[in-house]
């Protein structure tokens, strides 16, 4: 198996998970400007791979691998994937192949649409619970790994939409997000003097590129019409997303129906846990784990449901989702090689 973008945050996290995956042998590690350097210079925490040499990302270096993970900047993956055979399993951690609507892609990303691949969110409820997305991932050879913020919002609110206990036309999502979500290349995000001790909103006012992806997911769950107001805020932590999503309670729904919608949706899910009533998720409890922690409550006064999801953007938000989808595509047990325990404090 090859990992492209191996010097970056997402590629590094894929490699960390693969070092303990029993069915995977790590082959080429490739990147761009760091080609020719030791992997250990970029990923000093990956001791067993430290002496690997980063290769350039070319057809030749990726050829001959059964599985290729692409963790490249937006726009770079389509050309690379086109050179890989149809029998190679390619998992794209970038956004290029997530959206089905080419117009929505162009509106939010400003480039031509590269196409649509099977979507790598196994827990996504389809058609009000008839199926889950995992049912569509067996034997696929292309996977679009979801956006990390998208995963947090979708997992948080989808039980209410599937069960019809919330309205999907007035969703408000506000997120606290860690800096690693922006990637190593985002140097402006790394000015410690500005970032430490500050909460910094970005992509405010309906401009964030994850909005059409969230709406696409919630339509797949069963919402006829979806509208989401989405506001992320950078907070001084390396990893983590805490997504708070609120929605109007549907007519006739009550707190008991809301509780059972959330608990029933995630009862059998290995990587999504609805916490006991009254206990709220924290990002700290998910660091390093392929786990999303979810809680829900009804704000009777406001007539709204409030759901909070915490996850590690680099694990359940990217690399863990990639490995989970890889397992499904290869016919391996879905949980293979994926930690559910976090690191604390
Ligand atoms: N960080 C996160 O939480 C998440 C990231 N993702 C997605 O994963 C992808 C990677 O993100 P992330 O790891 O954060 O980014 P980084 O900036 O940390 O890493 C980018 C990687 O891509 C390589 N690269 C840059 N340009 C090219 C190119 N033209 N051809 C080949 N390789 C190139 C870099 O190599 P080099 O260093 O050698 O130049 C580096 O290995 C992005 O699409 C991102 O949106 C998705 C979900 C969450
Ligand atoms: C802090 C930060 O900037 N986070 C990124 C998350 C990126 C992500 O999930 O990946 P894709 O870009 O592949 O969709 C953001 O909000 O855009």
UniProtKB/TrEMBL annotation:
The UniProt catalytic activity note for this protein reads: N-acetyl-L-glutamate 5-semialdehyde + phosphate + NADP(+) = N-acetyl-L-glutamyl 5-phosphate + NADPH + H(+)
Lineage top rank: taxon: Bacteria
**Cellular location of this protein?**
Cytoplasm
Q: What is its main location?
A: cytoplasm
PROSITE patterns per record: ARGC
Keywords assigned by UniProt?
Amino-acid biosynthesis, Arginine biosynthesis, Cytoplasm, NADP, Oxidoreductase
What are the Semialdehyde dehydrogenase NAD-binding domain coordinates in residue numbering?
2-132
Q: Which residues form the active site?
A: 148
Q: Which GO terms are recorded in the biological process aspect for this UniProt protein?
A: L-arginine biosynthetic process
Entry EC no(s): 1.2.1.38
Q: Which family does it belong to?
A: Belongs to the NAGSA dehydrogenase family. Type 1 subfamily.
Q: What does this protein do?
A: Catalyzes the NADPH-dependent reduction of N-acetyl-5-glutamyl phosphate to yield N-acetyl-L-glutamate 5-semialdehyde.
> Under what name is this protein listed?
N-acetyl-gamma-glutamyl-phosphate reductase
| Native source species | Actinotalea ferrariae CF5-4
């Amino acid at each position: 198996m090859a990992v492209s973008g191996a010097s970056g945050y997402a590629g590094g996290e894929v490699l960390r998970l693969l070092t303990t995956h029993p069915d995977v042998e790590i082959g080429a590690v490739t990147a761009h400007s760091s080609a020719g350097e030791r992997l250990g210079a970029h990923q000093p925490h990956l001791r067993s791979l430290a002496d690997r040499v980063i290769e350039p990302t070319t057809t030749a270096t990726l050829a001959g691998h059964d599985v290729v993970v692409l963790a490249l900047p937006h726009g770079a993956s389509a050309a690379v994937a086109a050179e890989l055979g149809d029998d190679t399993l390619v998992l794209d951690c970038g956004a290029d192949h997530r959206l089905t609507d080419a117009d929505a892609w162009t509106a939010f990303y400003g480039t031509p649409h590269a196409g649509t691949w099977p979507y790598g969110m196994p827990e996504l409820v389809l058609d009000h619970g008839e199926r889950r997305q995992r049912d569509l991932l067996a034997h696929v050879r292309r996977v679009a790994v979801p956006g990390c913020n998208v995963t947090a919002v979708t997992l948080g609110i989808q039980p209410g939409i599937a069960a019809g206990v919330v309205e999907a036309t007035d969703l408000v999502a506000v997120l606290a997000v860690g800096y690693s979500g922006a990637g190593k290349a985002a140097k402006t995000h790394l000015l410690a003097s500005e970032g430490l001790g500050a909460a910094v909103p970005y992509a405010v006012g309906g401009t964030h590129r994850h909005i059409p992806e969230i709406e696409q997911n919630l339509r797949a769950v069963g919402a006829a019409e979806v509208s989401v107001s989405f506001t992320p805020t950078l907070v001084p932590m390396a990893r983590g997303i805490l997504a708070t999503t609120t929605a109007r309670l549907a007519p006739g729904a009550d707190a008991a129906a809301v509780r059972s919608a959330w608990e029933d949706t995630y009862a059998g899910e290995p990587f999504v846990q609805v916490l006991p009533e009254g206990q709220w998720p924290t990002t700290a409890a998910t660091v390093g784990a392929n786990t999303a922690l979810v809680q829900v409550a009804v704000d009777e006064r406001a007539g709204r449901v409030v759901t909070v999801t915490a996850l590690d953007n680099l694990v359940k938000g990217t690399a863990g989702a990639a490995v989970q989808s890889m397992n499904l595509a290869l016919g391996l047990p879905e949980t293979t090689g994926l930690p559910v325990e976090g690191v604390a404090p």
